[in-house]
Recover the amino acids of this structure.
């Protein structure tokens, strides 16, 4: 819920000041920047690091950046990362154990001391994914303390999308391109700067320090137009309007020949689960000291595409790619409803882009459901 619905305008010249204010408030700013041919999130100290005038072109199994004429900081769709690695670390120590002088084992829970993060440029699909991960790690009788602390300290500067890649389908997932989930500050980029909205009391405090003027009606109109344009660009969709019906259909077709068809193409590499902003599978391993006096118990990302993921009582339950892909897809858009009362897919399209062989989740769902994965633009 926003504190108020007043729109403010922030010129580009104030963007660096926003970073300074957040730094002075104790946050480490994390924002998008070009690295190794992709747009990734990393520590952002100066606005020069932002991907000015950069656009991404995404296809199944393809990702390429290009320079465009528009000198905008957020003219792209997304990169391989989301918010997930900031809150649910790819690898971290959960507890430590060591021997005391008498040889007794002493167990101690471990949690790193970390500076609060302000993420700059969070998109609607990734905020929707964060809300889903909140259900995984925070709800229930045993919330994860590491995730909980990072989540409570997180400051979100969200950005409405003005562009959709060929692999985006957040409209059909109901997660975008307009930001709907909780944020502290929301920005919509237009030619001369940003139309700003406050989403929390923390955001109100930060925005007040910028001393911004109210946005003009024409600036608000431009902002709304960019969001509508991003939505109109999307051509892919998740089949069936009622996603619970899709769940039931998938479980009624566990022996559909399409599962074998996709298994012939899938490499079981786990790329889709690594870039997915909602996947939460992990394994726990021991990292013993060489002296035999100490050890660290670590949690690290895992994937339902690995053989070890389904290893039970001396046997691998899902012993081929067909079973592993079926497990991933039926869980992602099916049994998530039973666990968390929501779909596990937010329509970001990362699993399509970063699949080495270009497997498209919307095409696979369309083949099994018998519906088209092509979205009809209602504005046409």
């Amino acid at each position: 819920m926003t504190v108020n619905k007043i729109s403010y305008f922030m010129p580009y010249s104030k963007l660096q000041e926003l970073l300074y204010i957040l730094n002075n408030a104790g946050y480490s700013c994390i924002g998008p920047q070009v690295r190794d041919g992709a747009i990734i999130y990393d520590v952002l100290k100066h606005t020069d690091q932002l991907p000015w005038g950069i656009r991404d072109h995404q296809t199944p199994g393809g990702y390429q950046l290009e320079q465009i004429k528009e000198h905008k900081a957020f003219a792209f769709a997304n990169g391989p990362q989301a918010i997930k690695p900031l809150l649910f670390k790819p690898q971290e120590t959960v507890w430590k154990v060591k021997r005391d002088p008498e040889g007794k084992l002493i167990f101690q829970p471990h949690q790193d001391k970390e500076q609060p993060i302000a993420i700059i440029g969070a998109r609607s699909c990734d905020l929707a994914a964060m809300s889903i991960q909140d259900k995984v790690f925070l709800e229930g009788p045993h919330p994860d303390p590491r995730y909980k602390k990072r989540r409570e300290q997180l400051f979100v500067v969200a950005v409405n999308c003005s562009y959709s890649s060929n692999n985006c389908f957040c409209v059909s997932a109901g997660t975008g391109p307009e930001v709907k989930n909780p944020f502290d500050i929301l920005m919509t980029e237009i030619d001369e700067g940003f139309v700003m909205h406050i989403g929390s009391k923390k955001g109100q405090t930060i925005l007040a320090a910028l001393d911004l003027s109210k946005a003009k009606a024409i600036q608000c109109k431009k902002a709304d137009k960019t969001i509508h344009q991003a939505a109109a660009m999307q051509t892919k969709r998740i089949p069936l309007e009622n996603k619970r019906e899709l769940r039931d259909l998938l479980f009624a077709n566990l022996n559909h020949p399409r599962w074998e068809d996709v298994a012939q193409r899938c490499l079981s590499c786990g790329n889709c689960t690594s870039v997915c902003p909602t996947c939460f599978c992990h394994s726990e391993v021991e990292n013993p000291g060489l002296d035999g006096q100490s050890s660290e118990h670590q949690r690290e990302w895992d994937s339902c595409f690995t053989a070890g993921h389904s290893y039970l009582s001396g046997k691998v339950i899902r012993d081929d790619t067909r079973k592993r892909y079926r497990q991933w897809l039926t869980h992602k858009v099916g049994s998530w409803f039973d666990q968390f009362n929501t779909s596990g897919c937010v329509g970001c399209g990362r699993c399509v882009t970063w699949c080495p062989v270009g497997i498209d989740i919307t095409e696979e769902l369309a083949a099994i459901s018998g519906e088209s994965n092509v979205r009809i633009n209602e504005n046409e």
User: Anything to note?
Assistant: The mean pLDDT is 93.
